[in-house]
Amino acid sequence: MGRLFLISLEGKIYSCKHCQAHLAVSDDIVSKAFHCKHGRAYLFNKAVNVTVGIKEERLMITGMHTVSDIFCVGCGSIVGWKYDAAHEKAQKYKEGKIVLER
Amino acid sequence: MPLSLAPREGLLFEIWGFGAGIESQSPIAAWGRPILSVWSSESALDWGFSRPTSAISEDNEPVRKLIKLFIDPLGGLMARPLPSQGREEMIGPKGVIKKIEFVRTITKALYSLGYERTGAVLEEESGISLYSSMVDLFRKQVLDGNWDESLITLHKIGLDDENILKSVSFLILEQKFFEILEKNRIMEALETLRSEITTLSINKSGCIVSPSQRILLGFANVGTETLKPRMKLLEELQKMLPPSIMVPERRLEHLVEQALGVQREACYFHNSHESCLSLYTDHQCGKDQLPSHTTQVLQEHHDEVWFLQFSNEGKYLASSSNDKSAIIWEVCEDGELTLKHKLIGHKKSVLMVAWSPDDGQLLTCGMEEAVRRWDVHSGECLYVYEKTGLGLISCGWLLHGKQLFSGVTDKTICFWDLDGKELDSWKGQRTSKTSDVAVTKDGRQIISMCQETVILLVDRETKIQTLIEEEQTITSFSLSGDDNFLLVNLINQEIHLWNIRNDPKLVGTYKGHKRSRFLIRSCFGGLEQAFIASGSEDSQVYIWHRSTGDLLEALPGHSGTVNCVSWNPSNPHMLASASDDHTIRIWGLSKVNRKRKETYGNGACNGSSK
User: Using a CB-CB distance cutoff of 8 angstroms, which residues of chain B are in contact with residue A2?
Assistant: First the structure.
C-alpha cells in the first residue's frame, strides 16, 4: 500500500487494536454504554483515520437505523460503525456519530 | 436648397448661405475642405465644416459664396457625421466592417510590403484612394522639405483638434528650424524660432530656448539625433494625425495579431507553443494535445514508488520508492527515459527527492531517517545529514543550492549548510509526521504545515507570517513554477488552488479523484501551467483545466494507487506518474499526434520531438 496518511491525535487516545492507528480521543466520548457483537463499545462525536463503507439499514436493540461500517485506514480492519439516520425520534441524537468497538 | 453631389473631385457649386446663422456658427471656409454630404433635413446650416483658415465674411447679409468643393469620401470622415450622409458600404458576414476602411487598410499593407504597383492598382480599381489628395500633397511636401507649403496644406486637411494641429505644426517647424541650422543659415533659423514657433505658443519653450542659447554662444551642436531624416518625421506625424486621415502603419498586421491572440486565449486545451498558430483555420486545440497515452513503463523499482519529480530543466526525472532507493532517469532527445543512476544507501523507504536549483545535485529523504545529498552526474552520495535521536521527514534547498533544510519528527525544521553544519532550527510549528515543507525559488518564503488545517508561510526577510486556513485536514501541497500559487490536497478528496502572491486567496477547486487512506500528490503542468494533474487511489491519473476546474482526463493504466505525478517543465507533452504497482508511467501524445508534431515542428515547438 502507498504512503499512509495518518492524523496524529493528542490526549487520551483510542487506537486501532491491530495497527495502533489513532482513532479518537476520550474528550469526544458521548456515551460508554454501547454494545456490539463482540462486547462493549463507545459512542464518539468524531473519529479520524477511518473510511466509511456503504449505507445499510440495520435493526439494532434500539430500533431500525441507517448505518455504515467504518474501517481503519491503516490496516483496513473494521473498527465500528457510523450512524447516518435514526428512524425513531428518541434515537436522533446518534446521527452523524461514530461507535468504536472496544 | 438641396444639392446632391456626386463623389468626384473638383465640382464647382454655388451655395447660398442664409442669414446670421452661418456666420455665427462657422464662417464658411474658402477652400477645399472635404464635405461629406450637403444636406440634412431641414436646414441649410447643417453642413459639415472643419475649422476655417480664414473667415470670408462676417456681415450678417446673406452671402453668396463660390466654393470649390472637393468631395472626398475619405477626408470627409473628419466632419461631423450627418444623418443623411450616403449609406456607407459594409462588408463581411456581420456587416460591421466598413468597406472603405477595409480597402484602405489593405492598400496600406500592400504598400508596406513593398507592392507598389499592386497598391496603386487597388486604389484605382476600387476607386478608394489611400490618402485624400490633400494628404498626398502634404506628404509630398514634407518629404520634399517644403515646410511653409506643408503647413498651409496641413490646415486644409481638415483637422478638428486644435492641439493636433499645433503639435504637428510644431514638429514641422522644428524640423524646418534644424534643417536651416544645419545649413548654417542662423539668422533665418532664429527668425523661424521667434516668429513661427513661438506663435504656436506651445509649452515647449524650454527645449527651444536651449538650442537658441547655443546659437548665441556661436555654438550649434545640434546632434544628428535632432535632425531627423524626413521619412522619420513623416512617420512621427502620421502617428499624431487621426487614423482616418492616415491609416496607421501595420494596421492590418495588428488586427490579425489581435485575432490570433483572442483565439489563443480561448483555446481550452492549448498545450503547444505559439509557432503553431495558422491563419487558415481558427486555432482550437483538441484534447489530443494533452499527454494521455502511456509511452513508457519504467519498472526498475522493486516496491511501491512514492514520489517523483522532473528536474528544473526537464532533462532528468528522479523517483523514490518504498524499496529504500531512489533512481535518476535521463530524458533523451527522442522522449524516451533511460536509467542513469540508482541511488542506494537509505535504510528506510525514501519519502521524497529535491533537485538543486542548477540540477547538479539531488537530495533524498529517508522515512524518519536521514537526508542524503547526491551528485547527479556521478551518482555518488556526497553527504548524509542526520539528527541524532530524531528522524527527518522532508527536504529542500535554499540560497541557490548553498543551504538545505529538513522537516524533523520533533516538529521542527532544521537548516544546514552543505558541509553539515547546523545553521538554524525553527521550533513551534506543529507538524505532523507526514508534513511537507516547500521553499520559493528566491528562497524568501518558507511554506510548512502549522496545524492540521493550516499552512504557514514565513517570509525569511521580513519575518512576516501568513496563514492559509482550510476547513479540512491538509495532506500535501505543492508550489507552482512561478511561486505565486499553492496547490493544497485535502483529506476530503478536494484539491484547492490558492493564490499566495499577496494575501492568500482561494481561486480554484478540483474534484473527482479518490483519496481515503494515502498521501496523494498533485502538480501543475502543461504550457504556462494551464493544467493540474493528480494521482488517485483508483489507479488513474487525473487532469483538470486549471482556470475552469473542469476534469479533462482520468487516465487508466496503473494497477495500483497513483501516489505522485510530475509534469515535465520543458515539455508540455510529457507527464510522469508513480504508483503502488511498482512502476512509473510516462504519458505523452498518441503516436499520430507525435508524428504530426514532427512534420509541423520547426524546432520551436519543443525540443524533444521524436
Answer: 304, 306, 517-520, 537, 560-561, 563, 580
Whole-number pLDDT of residue B595? 65
Sequence-distant (6+) residues with CB within 8 A of B81 are B36, B48
* Residues A26/A33, Cβ–Cβ less than 8 Å: no
Whole-Å CA distances, A42 to A15, A60, A95, B11, B492: 13, 15, 14, 105, 25
Orientation angle between helical segments B251-266 and B99-113, nearest 10 degrees: 110
Compute how many other C-beta atoms are within 10 angstroms of the C-beta atom of residue A89. 7
Q: What fold is seen in the domain B292-588?
A: Methylamine Dehydrogenase; Chain H (2.130.10)
Q: Looking at chain A, list the stretches that DSSP marks H as alpha helix, in order from N- to C-terminal side.
A: none
What confidence tier does B201 reach under pLDDT thresholds 50, 70, 90? low
Whether the predicted pLDDT of B283 surpasses 90: no
| Angle at the Cα of B585 from the Cα atoms of B583 and B586, rounded to 5 degrees | 150
Is the Cβ–Cβ distance between B73 and B65 less than 8 Å? no
Contacts of residue B309, defined as CB under 8 A and 6 or more positions apart, other chains included, come to B317, B318, B353, B354, B355, B566
What is the 8-class DSSP label of residue B11? E
Q: Which residue of A has its CA nearest to B580?
A: A2
Closest Cβ opposite residue A4 in set B452, B517, B560: B517
| B209 — pLDDT class (breaks 50, 70, 90) | very low
* DSSP 8-class letter at B518: B
List chain B domain ranges: 3-126, 133-249, 292-588
Q: Which among A3, A7, A8 is the nearest to B518, CB-wise?
A: A3
Checking if the pLDDT of A30 tops 70, the result is yes
Chain A nearest-CA distance from B518, in A, is: 4
CA atoms within 13 A on the CB side of B14: 3
Residue B99 in this model has a pLDDT that exceeds 60: yes
What are the beta bridge partners of residue B541? B555
3-state secondary structure (DSSP) of residue B46: coil
Residues in A closer than 8 angstroms to B475, CB to CB, are 5
Chain mean position to CA B485 = 19
Cell, residue B279: 491563419
- Using one digit for the tens of pLDDT, what is the confidence trace for B421-471? 998 888 766 656 667 788 888 888 888 888 888 898 988 888 888 999 999
DSSP assignment of B67-96? EEE---TTGGGGSPP-TTSPPPPEESTTS-
ipTM of the complex in this document: 0.85
The answer to whether B8 touches B71, Cβ cutoff 8 Å, is: yes
> How many CA atoms are closer than 13 Å to the CA of B266, on its beta-carbon side?
9
Give the residue among B550, B541, B549 at the shortest CA–CA distance from B513: B541
- Whether the CB-CB separation of B436 and B429 falls below 8 Å is answered with no
- Single pTM value for the model: 0.68
